[in-house]
Write a structure and sequence with these properties.
By secondary structure, this protein is mainly alpha-helical. It is 72% helix and 3% strand. Helix 6 packs across helix 9.
Length: 231
């Protein structure tokens, strides 16, 4: 009903308290669901908000005027603030979480590589230790490390996708409205949209390479990137 429909989005968006409820599904409800289900909840909730504001100026204004609370994961948990503020804070937290996951994955792989080298290369003047772990043991250790690294990489991807969805939502919300763009700018780092643009471009490149979304989605994303770059 809300997908690519200005009328449907307007009708749904006018329901009392709806936007506030969806924002809470993003900012507070995840703490009450299992960890493995949080990503799905975030993507579905952000996707619904994107549908509501993409083609409906009325909903964009409603979102900008909505008061909500900070994310349960942030230092602003439960603090009342404008939706733009809460979403930008959440975006920043997810960017940091993605970077941390990437660094942890790199550290795991680097550590394993050093262990393998140390076990295969004896020190000068020394022979290989007689009690060197068997190849099967080293292989199991490598497999465990790779699994941990893949888990970290998966978390990095999840955080990055959430960042892209938030950027897409905010870009849709301020399109064709300089006043809303300036209100959003008040809550961005250094008053610039560059972090939002970078998150969207990374995701845009990813979906172009993988083909996980159709041409319509990629065109919409490119349009929002241009909106943020030109604002």
């Amino acid at each position: 009903m809300t997908h690519d429909s200005a009328l449907g989005s307007a009708i749904v968006g006018r329901q009392p308290g709806l936007l506030s409820a969806i924002l809470l599904c993003i900012l507070q409800v995840p703490k009450a669901v299992p960890l493995e289900q949080r990503f799905d909840l975030l993507v579905l909730s952000l996707g619904l908000l994107i549908n509501l504001v993409e083609h409906c100026a009325e909903n964009r204004q409603l979102l900008a005027d909505t008061q909500t609370v900070g994310s349960f994961e942030s230092v602003c948990d439960q603090m009342e603030m404008p939706a733009f503020n809460a979403l930008m804070d959440f975006f920043t937290d997810k960017i940091e979480a993605a970077q941390q996951s990437e660094e942890q994955a790199d550290e795991l792989l680097s550590s394993q590589e050093q262990k393998v080298k140390a076990s295969l290369e004896p020190r000068d003047g020394e022979s290989l230790p007689a009690n060197q772990p068997p190849v099967s043991s080293q292989s199991d250790d490598l497999e465990e490390t790779l699994m941990k690294a893949l888990q970290k990489a998966g978390k990095h991807m999840e955080h990055s996708i959430v960042c892209a969805y938030i950027a897409l939502l905010l870009g849709c919300a301020v399109q064709n409205n300089k006043e809303l763009a300036e209100r959003l700018r008040e809550h961005t780092p250094d008053g610039k949209f560059l972090p939002l643009v970078e998150a969207l471009k990374k995701f845009h490149n990813f979906i172009n390479l993988t083909g996980v979304l159709g041409n319509t989605a990629t065109k919409s994303m490119q349009r929002v990137i241009e909106v943020l770059e030109d604002s």
